[in-house]
Request: fold
Amino acid sequence: MIEAKDIIEGRKRDGKAKEGRSDDVEEILSDREIVGFQTELPLLERGYSDYPDEGELLRPSNNDIEKLANHGSIHDKEEIAAELNVDVGVVDKAAELHGIDLPTGGSFDVSVSRLDQLLGDELPEDMIDPQNPLFLSILYLEHGLSISEMADILAENFSTANIRSSEVRQTLVDTRVLKGKTSAEQEERHKQNRGEVNRTTNGGINISTSQF
Reply:
């Protein structure tokens, strides 16, 4: 729920990311390496063709699971299993045999978009629209995203939309979340600069001569 203090804080940071936002938001927005057999570069110091099979992983001399458990790109046993292309049960059994503590940081499901991870079931589906100012305000004020992060994450979900950071900022300005000239104010200024013809109430016309 957006509170008055969120709006005040949002104006002060002027489009930057919120300091001290939740660890969950930081985790979702961070660039985490996608792990998995033949998905990226191998995490072990050899090619995928030289990776151990299930039998080799259970040998007392094998320490590959321990290496992966301590690797910075690995967050849980499911990712170890994915990297080795084996069942999670094999990882559990090998860890028990070798006395290895497996990480339990939670897996990173790349099939779920970052936007869906942020929102969950928080909003009705028809509200999730890059043109919806309330939706953008929630991302900025409640979740603490920066304008550039918002543009990136929206571009991932709405591939047909050409979303720019400047457009996101303008929407937040139009809703008075951020300071600046609203679209209506800018249009009025353009009209004045163009010296547009304006009809008067008595049927005559007024012509701005400021440009002559």
